[in-house]
Amino acid sequence: MTQQFYVSPEQLMKDRADFARKGIARGRSVVVISCKDGIALVAENPSPSLHKIGEIYDKIAFAAVGKYNEFESLRQAGVRYADVRGYSYDREDVTARGLASVYAQSLGAVFTAEQKPFEVELAVAEVAQTQEADHLYRLTFDGSIADEHGFIVMGGQADKVSEAVAAGWQGELDFAGAIRLALAGLVADKETTTLPASALEVAVLDRGSETGRGTRRAFRRLEDADIVALLAEEK
Amino acid sequence: MQETTANRVAANATSSFTEHLQRERPDLMPFGHMPFNQLLAAGQTTAPLQAPHGTTIVAMSYAGGVLMAGDRRATMGNVIASRHIEKVFPADQYSVLGIAGTAGIALDITRLFQVELEHYEKIEGTLLSLDGKANRLGAMVRGNLPMAMQGLAVVPLFAGFDRPAGFGRLFSYDVTGGRYEEQEHHAVGSGSMFARGALKKLWRPGLSEQDAVAVAVEALYDAADDDSATGGPDPVRQLWPVVYVVNRTGAVRVPDRDLAAVAGRIIESRAVAQREA
């Protein structure tokens, strides 16, 4: 019979956290930027079908880095939570704060109780009528939750990317400007100075979706052609 | 051990909101959370339930898409329960549904169906095919069969634009969930036979969108003329039918001012003719 060694709780938690951090840093970055037109979500993702960014509800979007199977199950759980809530109460009763707190609880429970923690980091974004009322929540593998202002950078070389985005961020950016800024951030840790549209996954939460497109669903995924057109616009 | 985990994950993977609700929150389902025999027993001991009923819905194809229109009346026995009720709804971007029958259950089924389509789209990342949508609606009507046997039937009409095929399609249902694809035009509800009579004379192939709106409003006018449970255009309260057109670009509600003009022309032409009907 093998002997069980004593491991202190501090050491156990530290090992788990290090394990999760390593997994998250291995991937590529995702940038979420709040701007004048709404919220832009930009990921470096060569796959056109395995998404890192998704729609949760009318005004709420989801972005993630880390292991695909883990954040995909969290995304689906989020869609189910939001749809059940909106169906049983009302559509306006679904909020990013409620969703983020459910995510925080599940991530926290997995971190302490399961064999291994989730190697993911999530962003939950909610667009509002005014930019001041936008919500950006960052959720980490251990269930910590942070209310961020302006933008979120996750995964990969997050420090370098974050520096580049912080340098250029301002509230008056439109979608084209925000996506250009995100792109500038994503190449900060690379040799190249630009990425092709096919290597990007871009979606937006449109602040004026009711007036502009006649729908309360603010989430819109941009096709490669849309991205090229937006980036080509006059600066 | 490995296999049972895999089986469990596969069994739990569903893109259907209805299935999820049945599993996790059966109390929220508009139908089917009371066992069949209990419902039957409940129905036998009490008098038939009085509940508002929605009435006439018409739908037709036209050049470039499909159109659906419904009157604004709900009745409860001989009483008008509502003059403002809306019975035609967008199901998603490319389809609409209209409901006749018990209003309370019908509105909940509509809401469930709307969430069902949006849920699938968000989970899967693609839209459900038009046939897939029509089948899901049929399953919901079938789920309501025990209630239908208590006299609380819901009969929808479904229309959508089939994007791969490039034309609009119409589907009707019976209370057991049977799904029937209709050609040219169709109507459901208490005034449907009168509306269908009108449609047979007014509809012609290749109608323009504007003409199709006029035909739909006139068919509802004829239904209201002979069926007391169907409401006609109401210039006093400025109430007009709810009309949706669905074409390649999506489902759009026809604005009230257009409908007021169309209804005004029909009333005027009938008054000028000075005939019985």
UniProtKB/TrEMBL annotation, chain A:
Keywords noted in UniProt: Cytoplasm, Proteasome
Source species: Arthrobacter humicola
Pathway: Protein degradation; proteasomal Pup-dependent pathway
GO cellular component: proteasome complex
Keyword Cytoplasm set for record: yes
Classification via NCBIfam families: 20S_bact_alpha
Assembly notes: The 20S proteasome core is composed of 14 alpha and 14 beta subunits that assemble into four stacked heptameric rings, resulting in a barrel-shaped structure. The two inner rings, each composed of seven catalytic beta subunits, are sandwiched by two outer rings, each composed of seven alpha subunits. The catalytic chamber with the active sites is on the inside of the barrel. Has a gated structure, the ends of the cylinder being occluded by the N-termini of the alpha-subunits. Is capped by the proteasome-associated ATPase, ARC.
Purpose: Component of the proteasome core, a large protease complex with broad specificity involved in protein degradation.
Locations listed in the record: Cytoplasm
Keyword Cytoplasm part of the UniProt annotation: yes
Entry similarity comment: Belongs to the peptidase T1A family.
One Pfam entry name: Proteasome
Domain of life: Bacteria
Protein name stated in the entry: Proteasome subunit alpha
Gene name for this UniProt entry: prcA
Record-linked InterPro entries: Ntn_hydrolases_N, Proteasome_alpha-type, Proteasome_asu_bac, Proteasome_sua/b
CDD domains in the record: proteasome_protease_HslV (cd01906)
Summary of activators and inhibitors of this protein: The formation of the proteasomal ATPase ARC-20S proteasome complex, likely via the docking of the C-termini of ARC into the intersubunit pockets in the alpha-rings, may trigger opening of the gate for substrate entry. Interconversion between the open-gate and close-gate conformations leads to a dynamic regulation of the 20S proteasome proteolysis activity.
